[in-house]
Fold this sequence. Notes:
Chain A has 340 residues and is mainly alpha-helical. Helix content of chain A is 76%, strand content 0%.
Amino acid sequence: MHRWTYIVRRLILAVVVLLSVSVVTFFIARVVPSDPAAAWVGSHPKPDQIARARIELGLDKPLYVQYLMYMNKLFHGDLGTSVQTHHPILMDLKTYLPATLELVLVGMLMAIVIGIPLGVLSGAKKESVLDHVTRFFSVAGVSIPTFWLGLLLQLLFFSKLGLLPLNGRLSVDTTLYHPVTQITGFYLVDTLITGNWFAFKDALLHIILPAFTLATYPIGLTVRMTRTSMIEVLNQKYILAARVAGLPERTVLFVLALKNAIIPTITVLGLSFVYSLTGAILVEVIFSWPGLGTYVTNAVLSLDFPVIVSVTLIVTVFYVFINLFLDIVQAMLDPRVTLQ
Amino acid sequence: MKDGVLLSVENLHVRFDTYAGQVHAVNGMTFDVRRGEIFGLVGESGCGKSVTGLAIVGMVPHPGRITAGRILFDGEDLLSKDEEEMQHIRGRRIAMIFQDPSAALNPVFTVGNQITRIIRHHMNLSRRDAYERALSVFEAVGLPDPVRIYRSYPHELSGGMQQRVMIAMALSSGAELLIADEPTTALDVTIQAQILDLLAHLRETQHLSILLITHNLGVVAEICDRVGVAYAGNIVEMGATEVVLNQMKHPYTEGLIAALPSPTRRGQPLQSIEGSVPDGLHLPSGCTFHPRCPHVMDRCRDHTPPRVQFSTPYGDHVVSCHLYAREEAR
Lengths: 340, 330
Ligand SMILES: Nc1ncnc2c1ncn2[C@@H]1O[C@H](COP(=O)(O)OP(=O)(O)OP(=O)(O)O)[C@@H](O)[C@H]1O
Ligand SMILES: [Mg+2]
């Protein structure tokens, strides 16, 4: 009960945050010296075309009316239209958002599966060979420039070894002969649901390199956070007590200690996740991945404000929910944490 | 005589190799714990009591190392066992509890989760049977409302209850020897007495032998059958509690007892032993107590004192002191 009232309170707060963000982004977009009407019309606009576009876009109305019109549409699921491409933004997002989410989620999964065990072992065997090797790679992971690593991986796994595809989400063959039925937009999920094994394997092979490139930074962070908090936890009396009670080292490390040590790691992973939604632009460009980062970067370069505002809102939604999720996970892991 | 011995520690040496140098934490510790008895290991802070306790279960903390000695448990040499064999002894045959129960319980698991994990690991019971066993052990250590305790997290329990839970966990798999390292030091006085009563009671009902580590002679007087007085990692005097506390022979024991507040000496200033406890980095030569000893003689400075054995109606009384060397010869 207690937990639910907390969640409801946080959700109400989330709505307030979202409204504020919408106001701020909307007005910033209008204050910036650029003319959406001119952009709408295209290159070499004539003055009367611009004037017509202005009325068409409602730009002749007072700002607050424009905002209310915008919000009204938003509540009806209409995110507006890109001034650059004249595409409905919602349609664009239906391709870009799942592509990004799929990439980022696989990247985070890699960070969890690789980073946490390495962090645990490296913290447990401090100053061992494993620890030194792990620390070397975790420092490398957070300091290697993404574009360089991405290109290097392409060179190695595509050009030299020919093991993995160069870029994109699917190969041409797949698109032609085993097309993916779009259900969720997550190719790995859609192909699985429809039993399209050929496309599933292809999508999997395509996502490995970009996801790993994206994951190197979070892996490095995860290893370091996990290692640091494991070292602290392993010094606690209850760990000694568990060992003296004869429990196997596996249980001591991966259950008894890890549950105490994992909270900072989860926080870091959650924030990396949100960051990667729009921050994965380099990976998206190198691997021709049709993601949100590329989409919003193009929008920023062409001052396509409806797109900027929409993406900002979506990222805010994720940010708010990830934070709520992190709080709940923390309270679930540690009974001494009270939600309030 | 030796038949009754469950644990025997012989000439144990533990050394920590630190950046500052070699710390001699335990230096020739020798004592034994007999079946069914409560043996007190008493001494000032830093004299190597905890390290000795941990050495028995094979858990000397890094960077410590056992450099000499033997530890015989039920006739088996524990120091010759490998890690896997020791895991079968830890928790199953020898259990240990610690000073601060709130730190020794894992904060993020329920008490029930922690005890059943241990029970199931050692006894191969079903979930249901382990649960039943946990409840009955909780009852045996005097915890009221075992079902509620089972579902509690450590921070929801009082210090006394936490220590009872620790004892329950320690005994849940039928250990024969309990090493209790300062089990009451962190608790309120009234709770201390209850926990000591509980230990004495469990010794009777569970066929338990207890190695009770403490710096408190009052605790020793209350429940120990025999006691060993440790100084700088060695036992300087050992025997039945009545004998050691009333007819002590070692000057250090005399000093410790003189330093106790006592009703018969009310109003008189407390005495304390001059000087300070030697640190393991620079142990005095000869008898390690000689710099503080009021009866110091020349040979004390560079000769290790002999272990002199006296017979008393309560059993052997052993003293490591040059003062009694002649008596031994007689
Ligand atoms: N990890 C360690 N590194 C270096 N020296 C240590 C370490 N642990 C213990 N020692 C040394 O071993 C000696 C004995 O420590 P121990 O904890 O056994 O004392 P104790 O008799 O239990 O004292 P207390 O009453 O304070 O618990 C100490 O003087 C300390 O210098
Ligand atoms: Mg101690």
